Amino acid sequence: MSSAVASGAAFRTWQEARDKLWELMDDSTVLVGHSFQFDLELLGMSHAKVVDSAILTAETVYPSIPSTKPLTRNWGLKILAKDFLGLNIQTSDCGHNALEDAYAARDVVIWCIRNPEDLKVWTEKAQLQEEHKLARSRQRYGEIYSNLGT
Fold this sequence. Notes:
Number of helices: 7
CATH topology: Nucleotidyltransferase, domain 5
CATH class: Alpha Beta
Number of domains: 1
Strand content: under 5%
Order of helices and strands: HHEHEHHHH
Radius of gyration: 20 Å
Distance between the termini: 59 Å
Structural class: mainly alpha
């Protein structure tokens, strides 16, 4: 990043970044990302055509949650890239690489579209893990409450 700033290639404000983005897109552009609402909020933007890999995958695990309610859990991009693509991303000690994350989010979405049967297998496994986690949590809370009563 420091080399981009030194060479004048970095945006100095979020407004500059947003303006440049609007130069490259229009209302028909489809944006793809992961947990994209945070990026859009940071840029002070909203857009009607967004494919979010976090929402796409979480909705397969929790299909009965209405779109007006928050999802119970989102899986991180690092986990999805590993599970779906066999990729190890975000391994640097310096934090996330935005370009790497963008490619990974795009590739996760493409994988979901191209591999519906594999996505179904992943979904069933994730649902089972979530059910086990919930059962363990209920058991722990039950033990806590029963100990309080003694």
